[in-house]
Design goal:
alpha/beta; 16% strand; binds 6-O-phosphono-beta-D-fructofuranose
Length: 344
């Protein structure tokens, strides 16, 4: 919503006529297209969700003709696509067919918007920060509820195969263990983790918070991990588990997300102006990098992602996994284990 509002207002400011497509490509094909005036997007910046609607399906080749016709009939000169992995894939695939569908030969700019933070060309996507805030809010409450008893709590965070939300919420909420798809684990890892947990509870620990990325580990999923821990707890602690669930998707966008959306859209509008001025029509993704806001050729997407697990090949935040073992386990040791007499 924040990105759509920013696009409408910044576009109008540039002298563009802005149209809203309701319901993604299906909406485009069925004519759900409406000119949006400045006041039409009043209030959109501060509400969660998407007034324009979202739809996940990637258009099928058989639909390309209808999409091309709709672009022409609506006299659409450029597309700003606000979306996640499927939106990026859709544009990428459509642009490979411009020789057969010349209507696709217009500037198309993708803006990264997904709580999963799994999009190429951007360190962060719109929505990931709001979802992280929600996840940490929930984990803090779980922590409070569980702190009175000797308990291990295993929580699933969203993100599909991308561990961003799990790791970051784990760090922010002080998790002791995090299981991510990016770092495969096996039964031996679970065995050594549960042993460490037993030792720690024996020494007085009251709570162990464990984060699991919803699609990590295949059959070694949240329920399996919780069962192993419960079975092997030897009476030292009890185990509960739950998925943080759809609360991660909801709520008002965080200030960071609102600002990120506005910055990304500004870059997209600049890019469109340049492409119009130079009579170009290059498909691009815009994104946040260490240098600021940058763009990359969308046709290079395949070289930047692992299509099996639908996430970038390089993820800047992965090395932070070390923080879990260093900070949490050190804290665990320092707080719980009595110092040997010789050190006193
Ligand atoms: O891709 C975004 C996402 O929130 C994932 O993190 C999650 O697994 C999925 O969507 C949930 O989908 P749905 O809302 O359709 O259950």
């Amino acid at each position: 919503n924040t990105a759509a509002r920013a696009a409408v207002r910044q576009g109008i400011d540039r002298g563009f006529e802005m149209l809203g497509i309701y319901g993604s490509f299906e909406g485009l094909m069925s004519g759900k297209v409406k000119q949006l005036a400045w006041e039409d997007v009043e209030g959109w910046g501060f509400d969660g969700g998407a007034e324009l609607g979202t739809l996940r399906p990637i258009p099928r080749v058989e639909e390309y003709y209808a999409i091309g016709r709709a672009l022409e009939e609506q006299r659409i000169d450029a597309l700003i696509v606000i979306g996640g992995y499927n939106a990026y894939l859709s544009i990428n695939q459509m642009r490979q067919e411009t020789s057969r569908y010349p209507a696709f030969n217009i500037p198309m700019i993708c803006i990264p918007a997904s709580i999963d933070n799994n999009l190429p060309g951007s360190e962060l996507s719109i929505g990931a920060d709001s979802a992280l805030n929600n996840a940490v809010w929930a984990l803090d409450r779980i922590r409070e509820s569980a702190a009175a008893s000797r308990r291990c709590f295993v929580a699933d965070a969203m993100g599909r195969h991308c561990g961003y939300l799990s790791l970051m919420s784990g760090i922010a909420a002080g998790a002791e263990l995090v299981y991510l798809d990016e770092f495969p684990y096996d039964l031996q890892d679970l065995a050594s983790d549960v042993k460490m947990m037993r030792d720690s509870f024996r020494d007085g620990r009251r709570l162990c918070l464990v984060l699991h990325n919803e699609e990590a580990g295949g059959r070694y999923d949240r329920e399996f991990i919780a069962s192993v821990f419960a079975q092997e707890s030897q009476g030292m602690f009890d185990v509960r588990h739950s998925a943080l669930g759809h609360l991660q998707q909801g709520g008002e966008p965080s200030p960071f997300d609102r600002i990120l959306a506005t910055r990304l859209v500004r870059a997209a509008i600049e890019e469109l102006s340049e492409q119009f001025a130079q009579n170009r029509s290059e498909p691009l993704g815009v994104g946040l990098s260490a240098e600021g806001i940058e763009s990359f050729p969308l046709l290079q997407m395949q070289q930047k992602v692992d299509p099996q697990v639908r996430r970038p090949l390089s993820q800047w935040w992965l090395p932070l996994i070390d923080i879990i073992s260093v900070v949490s386990r050190d804290e665990w040791d320092i707080e719980v284990r009595p110092l040997p007499i010789t050190d006193l």
